[in-house]
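Deliverable D4.2, example record:
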Amino acid sequence: MKGCYVLLLRLRHAERIVVGRLGSFHFTPGYYAYVGSAMLSLEKRIARHLRGEKRKHWHIDYLLEVATLIAVFSIISENKCECALAQVLRNLQGAQVPVLGFGSSDCSCGAHLFYFAANPEQAIYSSLKRFSMESNLTLIFERLAE
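Output generated by the structure prediction step:
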């Protein structure tokens, strides 16, 4: 399957994280939603994110070292929809961009990572459900923790 996804993570304690060449940043405790795409294999990409030990390749790999992955939202699509999903998340109440350029080095979006003080799972699900229905795409949701 091809498509895009949103990873929902929870960071319990403040952390200073070096995010590859992007730099060192302070991350506030709370919830982070990351948007990505997998145009070769959605299943393999998500499985990689779930693995503990891995070589760091993407910005999200650095955050995954210290945060808990609590849910995955997958959208099955033949076309790259990651920037459209980032716009959906950006418009959610309480969404903040914690690090400019995080996850968006190959597009013109400001970031593909969003911070929420309170758990946004229900709001993300509702918004992505609406997006997938309007776009005639399939949404798959998997809760992993919390």
